[in-house]
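Fold it.
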Amino acid sequence: MRPILPADAPAPDALLNTLLEVSQTGVMLLRPIYEAGGSIIDFELEYLNPAAQRLLGQPEHPAHTLLSIYPHAGFATGVFAFYRDTFESGVSRQEHFNYQYDGIDGYFRVVARAQGPLLVVSIADDNDTPRTAMQEALRRSQQAEQQARAAAETERNLLQAIITQATVAIGLFQGDECTVTAANDLICAIWSYPKGEVLGRPLLEAVPELVGQGFDDLVREVARTKQPYIGEEMPAQLRQPNGRVETRYFNFAFQPLYGPTNEVIGVVDIAVDVTEQVLARRQVQELNEQLQQLNTELEGRVQQRTAEVQQALAEAEHQRGQARLQQELLSQILGQVPAIIVTFSGPDHRFTFFNEHYQTLAGGRAVLGRPWAECIPEAVLQGLAAMADGVYNTGQPLITRETPAELVHEPGRSRYFDITAQPLLDAQQQVRGVQVFAMDVTERVLARTERETRQRELQTIFEQVPVPITILQGPQLEVQLANRAICELWGRSPAQVLGRPYFEAVPATAGQGFEEILAGVMQTGETFFIDEQPVQLDRAHTGLPPLGYFNFAFQALRDATGTFNGLVAIGTEVTDQVLARQQVQQLNDQLAAINEEMQATNQQLADTNHRLSRTNADLDTFVYSASHDLKSPITNVEGLLLALREHLPPEAYKYEHVPQLLAMMEDAVARFQQTLLHLTDVSRLQQNTTNQPPEAVDLPSLVEAVRLDMAPELEAAGATLETELDGCPTVKFSAKNLRSVVYNLLSNAIKYRTPQRPPHVRLHCRHVGQHVVLEVHDNGLGLSEAQCRELFQLFRRLHNHVPGSGVGLYMINKIVENAGGSIEVRSELGVGTTFTVFLPATE
């Protein structure tokens, strides 16, 4: 056989490479890619000759697979199926393809055959071959299809940008249960639930706070009647980010959403939160994302095509109709959005869309296709066009708040807008225009300005009024306003009280009954008057006495909803009048008797004091002697009882009363011994207190030591001990005696606790005039008025459910009295008790 190549021909490999380089026909080598089951799922592009590189716009060795470079080579065109079937058949096959995707547009003749592990493909441009009318019609149909897809994609991108970047809240409800099928971030923020928790769930299940408020009935009514529902300043109870449910107010529209055959497929909720306009007017809520589903369906329908030309033409026409329907529906929805929406194209910002709200604002001057500056020239003079220039040139969004603007057809009137400007991008992610969302917030700005002006005027007036006035607001009764007169009355500066809860700003008034008074005024809204109320105030640094008398008037304040949200308090100090009247009354009642009896009374007092001193001394001596003399007999009785136990025959213990009587006798002996010890302590009390000179005692350290000693008792009772000792860091007193006072008062507060609540004890100290005041307050069982009168009697016990002897309070009362002080007690059954110890303030 004669050889194919001449004898002097180059080597086959070199000859093949040269042949592939000079060939005008594209040649590709493809290597199949298999999935785990052995099926071919894609091809690697191993090699493209120069003709194939020019034809397909790819390098010699492309880095990506066939379907990643040409995704439409799959289902849309059948190219991949042709390659796969040819490789698996092992025979040579050829096909004509009209490929109008992935940046390629033309007719191609393709011949392929498997060669070992590779598929050899020859591809030639067949565009010059004459086509039948049917083929040309099919090509025009495909081009129309592509244009419809591009238009739909543009509309879909615009809609997606508008929904995502909208400054209003949008939601879509479908079905009888009003299932939330779309919701943007703003409506989720209004509901205070993440998007993942609401999508796909019935409205009342996703947002349970709306149960019983009627919004679901309105949605169903709109879907049934196909009539939109517009709500203005409608109240809604909604959960807030802090977890509380509050009333918010909204402007909203429930708009039926129609499908291709004019059936209602859902209800669009477009809402604006206008709470600030109702208390000073309202803001933006929901826009709908449901139309994305229409785009997806449109894309699916566009991709459907048949082999017959008439079917392809009908499908293309159907896709164009769907694009028009989508654009009309988008315009309908955007026209109803209670916000200003405008889109511009190009660097000169030509109008491509504006809703009715913008056209009304512009006085009907906006014209599609005309430059913004030409239609609305004041936009240039006031810097608005420059803002759009910045967004267009930088591609960065711009957000402004309360931007002022004046319109030429509204001379002398300023408007204010919240503006969001976003770049519009084309398929290559290049800026092709700008879209603007704006909310007219003029009423909100003017209302806030008027409110601030009135507040400043009110503050000025209040500052000039000589009568003490304060305004308290909110559940914590925060001090919103306090004029100079009431700050002087409190002994506090404005910086110490403004913005703080009342009882935190003026702590000295706590525990004096004002808590109940203020709560009653806030609850009932009735004005409350108090005349000549005694009040203890911490104002020693002002030179005024701590105890004063005042006339008060408390008037509740209502907010715009009629709820009591604060009160006005007006106080007038009448201390001088009260004290003067009291003094005059006392002088009038006592002057005559004092003049007649003064001499006799003085002598009688001297005699009485002498007798009392001797009696007290004799009593102390008697008590000490009696307690000492009785120790031996009772010790003997104790020894006899012990001997009796040792010598009683075992048979005697078989009688049930014998062990009981012995135990009772021993208990009586123990209690008698305890009583003798208390008598000894009492007899020594007078001498010990007079022999204990006062010294500088570090009160916080002493209280901390007592706390440590009582730690097991506090822990067992589950009690909390609160101390406030900054006012008295050092106290002049006998350290031993002061420790006894503190220990007894704290121990009693824990012993006589109530099982209804955990014990809470508060110990604080302050200087009041010439006294050091030590106060212990608990929330325990409390005492009646009769019990309070018997509290400091020797061996007097008022509760028997805890161990005690009735000596502790008697002893600390004697300690305080012997030092020149006094003890007061205030108590209420079931509420708690307060012991107030007045000690002389020794310099």
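Confidence is low (pLDDT under 50) at residues 281-291.
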